[in-house]
Every structure is written in structure tokens, then in C-alpha cells.
Amino acid sequence: FLRSNPKYKYNQGYHELFGMIYYLFCLEMRVKDDDVDDKYFDLMFNQKYIDADAFWAFAGLIENVEILYQEPKSDYEPSFSLSKCSEIQNVLFKKYDPEAAMKMHSREDPIYMLQWLRLLFVRLFGIQESIPLWTKIFVFFPDLSLIYYIAVALL
């Protein structure tokens, strides 16, 4: 992916996102029923296309979540993702659970939340538990706001 997309550089976690996508494509493979004579079935559920399908799905995912991996523009301002983590903890969480937010206010930076957002919760929940969550996330994709509200719920 990085060879064919030089504008991106490798970021920690890309392999986990790709692994999840590849796993999901493998789950989608079906055994063809002999009664079904459908050329589209053969095209869509053919195991020899898993690598290419996973590659293009990953490319689309990275294109849309790239903002969560961007470096800070300067040494004096946080990255987009760290700013978003602060907003989740200090604005959204306070809005929906002010009492719990007051107890949590002692934390300086919500850096712990970065892996939740960047990995779309895969490391937090594991593969099997992440499948239904990813289904819901991708219903609204490329809008990332559901990811932020899931983080609020976790807090």
C-alpha cells in the first residue's frame, strides 16, 4: 500500500487495521451452491480476489482515517487526533456525564484514547467483539463522529 501511495508513511497500527479488514474478507467468502449459476457470485466471493479486495478496502479506510494519524503542524500545538481526544474527554464527556467528568478532570492529556480512535477499537475489544462495532461505524463512514461517541461511552 505504501509503495503505491507515497503520500502516506507507515504509522503504528496500520497492520492491525489491515489484519481486521483481511479477516473480514475471509469471513465473507462463501461456498457456491451448485444450484446458483451466477457470474457475479463467482466474482464477489472468489478467494483469489481477497488480497486485492482487502488492499482496496484498506486504501479507502486509510484515506478517511488519515487525519487521525497526522503529525502536529508545530511543536506548540497538538495533533488533530490528540485535540479530538481532549474534546471527547473535556467537552463531550462533560456534556453527557458531568459527574463522572469531574472525577476524571485530574488527567492531563487523554493520550490513552489515541489507540481507541486510530485502531477503531480493535485492540481494545479484540477481533470478534469488534466486528459488530465496525459494522455500525461503517454505516456512517466516512463520518467519524460515531467513533468519538463510542469513546465517550467507554469513558
Structural account:
The model has no long low-confidence stretch (mean pLDDT 87). The chain is mainly α and 155 residues long. The protein is globular and about 60 Å long. It has helices at 14-28, 39-44, 50-65, 80-96, 98-104, 114-118, 122-125, 127-139, 145-154. It is built from 9 helices and no strands.
List keywords for this structure.
mainly alpha, 9 helices, 155 residues
**Alpha-beta content class:** mainly alpha
Helix content: 55-70%
Poorly predicted ranges (pLDDT <50, ≥5 residues)? none
Strand content: under 5%
- Strand tally, please? 0
What's the helix count? 9
Alpha-carbon distance between the two ends? 34 Å
Biggest sheet, in brief?
none
- Spatial shape: globular
Mean pLDDT: 87
* Helix-strand sequence: HHHHHHHHH
Instruction: Determine Rg (CA atoms, Å).
Output: 19 Å
Quick structural overview:
This protein has helices at 14-28, 39-44, 50-65, 80-96, 98-104, 114-118, 122-125, 127-139, 145-154. With 155 residues, it is mainly α.
Strand and helix layout:
Layout: H1 14-28, H2 39-44, H3 50-65, H4 80-96, H5 98-104, H6 114-118, H7 122-125, H8 127-139, H9 145-154
Helix pairs in contact: 1-3, 4-5, 4-9
